[in-house]
Amino acid sequence: MHILLVASAFNSLTQRVHAELRERGHAVAVELALPGRSLTEAVRRHDPELVIAPMLKTAIPREVWSARPCFVVHPGPLGDRGPSSLDWAIQAGAEDWGVTVFQADAEMDAGDVWASVRCPVPPVSKSDLYRGEIADAALAAVLRSVERFSAGTFAPVPQRAARTRPYLDQSVRRIDWFTDTTETVVRKLRAADTQPGVRDVLCGEQWYLHGGHPEHGLHGAPGTLLATRTGAICRATSDGAVWIPELRRPRRPGGPPTFKLPAVTALGDRLPPVPDLAAPPTASARTWADIRYTEEGAVGFLSFAFSGGAMSTSQCRRLLDAYREACARPTTVLVLGGQRDFFSNGIHLGVIEAAPDPAAESWANINAVDDLVEAVLTTTDRLVVAAVGGNAAAGGVMLALAADEVWCRAGAVLNPHYRLMGLYGSEYWTYTLPRRVGVATAERLMGEALPVSAASALRLGMVDRVLDCGTGDFAGEVGGLAARMAALPGSRSRLVAKKAELEAQEALEPLSAFRERELARMRRIFDDPYAPYHELRHAFVTKQRPTDTPPHLVHAVGPRGRTEPVGSPVRVTGTAPADLSSRPDAW
């Protein structure tokens, strides 16, 4: 079918629905619901057979839903209504939740139901849950709704008993540091992540707090700052403490937009003298660290979890240090990643935007990522597996492609392109991407700048294995497969072949040549104050809405590419080298 996605933003769920519907043979276009733009006219112009709203903050006009079927995806179970569904579920400590697809009509969230899928609610942040269990349930519900609509024999079910929850405002989110337990504080912080954050007073000023992780080993007077670690701050609760990774200033009336930053960076000179604690030497459930290393027999696991998937210069350098330490261990297989949310999205645009010299910080950041990718590419004494449990984009995709094998969860979405940020790209992409998918496909992926589903990535050769499992099961599945890989008798011969291949490549064209060419292009962009990158970066970190739907989203795109070309191809160099399982209580 020809399907039009209508959304307030091309967010992670909209991208996943877009990629998965294309994978199943549908022609899919996107229109953003933007102020001053007629959604009615846009739908008339597309003339789709079906309209789907994966994430829409405004009502679909009567002229649209009365003229053609419109399916709205609501992140709540049957009977749930209101704009803060997930926030209420997490803050109340719900253990399971769901997603409902209903047909738009005159009353918000009250249309006839086409499908509803339940899902668990693990103790994670709202954004992590949204990209994980909620996205899995949403996709299952969307696909089931599309199948039922296509068959033409299903009658949607009218809603009966319903509960409309109000917007969860700051009066309910407020933290009482003297009475709220660590568990309560963490729930409130997780329910507000990544937006709107929890408004609070810290160091005598107003801030929005973003992200929360429990700490049980540190104690102090409730509300006081106890320590810092890798850019995060630790704040005492009534019975323990929490780690808060990021802060954001409230926007003053008429002032410039604000954005999230690592907490220590945001506080700057306001931060009182507190100890800066090193990350624990071993994995521990009783404290928080953004990088962890564990070992099971001949397999090492180097996991990392950076807010929003962005990796600043310091984070890249710390991860590189941890990678080198992991490579000093007597293991046969090293698993990089393996966590449930973002794998990586490349350079940290927020830290760059806040830097005194954004061009210099851009240069430092891209070189730090390149150093990390180079270390992975040149590891020849063990097999490296990139375990992509969540979404990845730009340099994060290329970090994964540097590994010997890429294992991807079925629900992950990959965006292997740079041009929407006005960048040429680095991280050895002109070597690793054509090596896996071929030059022509690499050019198409870079030019189209569209999300790629895990199944499509497997078919193209970007990934080597897709694990059809729930978000919470990914790490265990990866661990079992890595142990079997380490035990295979052919692993040693693979290492010999790997070393020989790298030596042959260095003799033909050194990896440093790819890096130098890429960085030359990037340096010119960074140093040009009029390059679109700077304006695009600012718009991205301050969450400015576009004035129009980006052209690359407007054209209907099928499973093998768009119906008409958009933009100029990106020239590269180099040589070529499912169903979801977690659907409880679904109907």
From TrEMBL:
It holds the Pfam family Formyl_trans_C. Residues 543-587 are annotated as: Disordered. Residues 38-138 form the Formyl transferase N-terminal domain. It comes from the Bacteria. Residues 170-250 form the Formyl transferase C-terminal domain. Signal peptide: none annotated. InterPro entries: ClpP/crotonase-like_dom_sf, Enoyl-CoA_hydra/iso, Formyl_trans_C, Formyl_transf_N, Formyl_transf_N_sf, Formyl_transferase-like_C_sf, HoxX-like, NiFe-hyd_mat_HypX/HoxX. GO terms for molecular function: catalytic activity. This is Hydrogenase maturation factor HoxX. It comes from Streptomyces brasiliensis. The gene is hoxX.
